[in-house]
Design brief:
The chain is an alpha+beta fold and 166 residues long. The protein has a single domain, classed as Heat Shock Protein 90. Helix content is 27%, strand content 21%. It has five helices and five strands; from the N terminus they run βαββαααββα. The chain has a five-stranded mixed β-sheet, with helices on one face.
Length: 166
Amino acid sequence: MTIAAPEEPLYVDGDAELLRRALDNLLDNARKYSEPGSPITLRAAAEGDEVVLEVADAGIGIDAADQVQVFTPFFRTDRSRTRMTGGVGLGLTLVQRIALAHEGSVALESEPGRGTRVTLRLPGPAAGSRRHQRCIASGLRRRSEATNDACVDRRDGLGGDDRGVR
């Protein structure tokens, strides 16, 4: 897997466990629907007031007709059912609900035989806000249990090790 993230930490307001689950689902889908050794890229970037997390693969892709349904609970494409990858069709539904719960969004672009790119957009805390200051004060190593703030740092799963979103 290739990870592309800025040197500067990225901050996200949200529940660290839910955000970790959303990212895990996206990475798991990229792995399941790609051939072993195929490139998978995780990109993290700040775009305006948002933090953008993007997972891209060179896997089997999704037909255009199926793309409008991939966020529907229990939907699985015919191609995913024939791969025997397991699952019941809730992964992308969960990612979408987590994004919406954080006032964010998720978008999917895919082409059969060429791969899929899923983009998760989340609001970052306003600079100077109390949540932003808590992220800085926490050293970006733990979340505030009182507020469930998530501080995303490239050293914590988006760049260096596998500890995930903090």
